[in-house]
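Q: Hi! Curious about what PINc/VapC family ATPase looks like structurally. Here's the sequence.
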Amino acid sequence: MNVVPDTSVVIDGRVSVAIEDEDGQFEGATVCVPEAVVAELEAQANDGYDSGWDGLSELKRLADLADDGVIDLEYVGERPSAIERGHASEGEIDALIRDLAEELEATFVTSDIVQAEVAQAKGLEVEYISPEVREIGELRVEDFFDDQTMSVHLKTDTVPMAKRGALGEMRYEEIGDEPMDEETIDEYAREIVDGAKEASGGFIELSEPGMKIVQFRDYRIAIARPPFSDGIEITAVRPIAQTDIDDYEHADELKDRLLERQRGVLISGAPGAGKSTFAQAVARHLNDHEYAVKTMEKPRDLQVGPEITQYTELGGEMAKTADALLMVRPDYTIYDEVRKTDDFEVFADMRLAGVGMIGVVHATRPIDALQRLVGRVELGMIPQVVDTVVYIEAGEVAKVYDVKTEVKVPAGLTEEDLARPVILVSEFETGEPEYEIYTFNRQVVTVPLADQDDDQETGVDRLAKGEIEREIRSIAQGYVDVELKNKNRAVVYVDDNDISTVIGKGGGRISDVENRLGIDIDVRTHDEKPNQGASAGASGNSGGGNAGSQSQPAGQIVTPEITSRHIVVPVDGHQSETVEVQANGEYLFTATVSRGGEIQVSRGSAIADELERAIDRKDPITIVPS
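A: Let's find out. The predicted structure is below.
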């Protein structure tokens, strides 16, 4: 008796089972394994798919049975070409295997119902073996969880770890005594994937070479394998709390606000603060009040009732999911997580189409959630997209903002011709404005309105100084210093040879600057600055400035070079010494000079950003020994 198995039944491991069971259905048969099956299994294993490894394990079992004399094992046919493998999804490999079964007058064995029907239609003798279905109870990875465990982290040759504790107070701690070996981790991973396939409430959310994301009941489990990771790693996450909206501060006001009409809401907070938990409570509250609620998630891990449908990417794009949802017409959609520009654009499109939107956003400050819309959504549209910001901290509602637009003169400016649309960000409970967002000299700025000491420079002051410096530096060649006298007047100090250029013929150039900025500007030389000695001059001008003056900072003046990855500050002398780096006489940071006579600062760091801004302002950069 000749038996030709296809790829599905080899992966399922049912050929060896049929040989070894009580009936001994294929005992003594010649099992002819097509080279096309081997090629498919090899390709899948190389790509990191468990199915490939499962199939190769079955071939080893068949080889053992052949060694024991239970069956004869042969490999038949030719290895498929690259073109045939490329069209495997269209049935090319299946056709090769069926042709071999027909040629050998063999029984064709499959666990694929479509293959079985096609083979029968071709007149082949077919043995269809239903895929194995097991009763899935609990996964072994669940044994690591207790009531306060949010996530479990297992990795080859590493002691099991877990995040445990109350919301906002998570601890990453060891939960085992010995490192786990690769064989055990691999068994756990296979059990998880099998459970997701076979258990109700389980499915595979993402399957890529080296990575699978599985939803198994309340657990979201990520399985990483080499070469994507440097070892097999399992990360299992489960929500540790299910709250009701009444458990939160401002509950009554928030409930009324959400039910009043469809709104645009951003739920923000740091990782682990409880944003998703609050989003789930909001979803249940809206559903209980007869609102049609859906979710958009990738991966799907919000814990909501079956009456709330959870959608993921359609065709790999959330934009397509949004198009489908607009046909469904939900009252509210929970979007978890809004991270990339595409996410914000989809959120805005759905909101402007009239759908109530609730987005979950990572932010370390309440205002940061709103600022992430700047540049992604037209400024004037932001209040139409988001009118409420809820900031979650340690599982509690720490701040709620109301967002709206008014046409007004921004706080701190008094000229009537400076009136413009201003986004007011107000504290929800008191109604007191805390921030204003508006366009100033073609730039979008966010200005805090918190009370400050009279002698402390306000956000508006810094903004005005920065814009005046930017305007004057675009005209002047040398060093520029700005001093604000009040909200309507400033004095600009420039080099002697820049005076005429900055003022312009008949004062026309400085008048244009004044009109653009809405502030009176008095132009003077550095010598005219009170309490100053000789002119500061341009960078490199060696004059008689006072050692401690702001216009001529003390120390060695240097010219930093900005590369793609670093800001390189050349230093003459002081090799291996610790020095201070100052901008316009103000301390920036302390560093050690290399033996090559330079300081390197990696771009993207806070220090580099501050130094780069100083360079853009043309501030003198100086090196002062510590």
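A: A fun detail: Residues 50-67 form the longest helix (18 residues).
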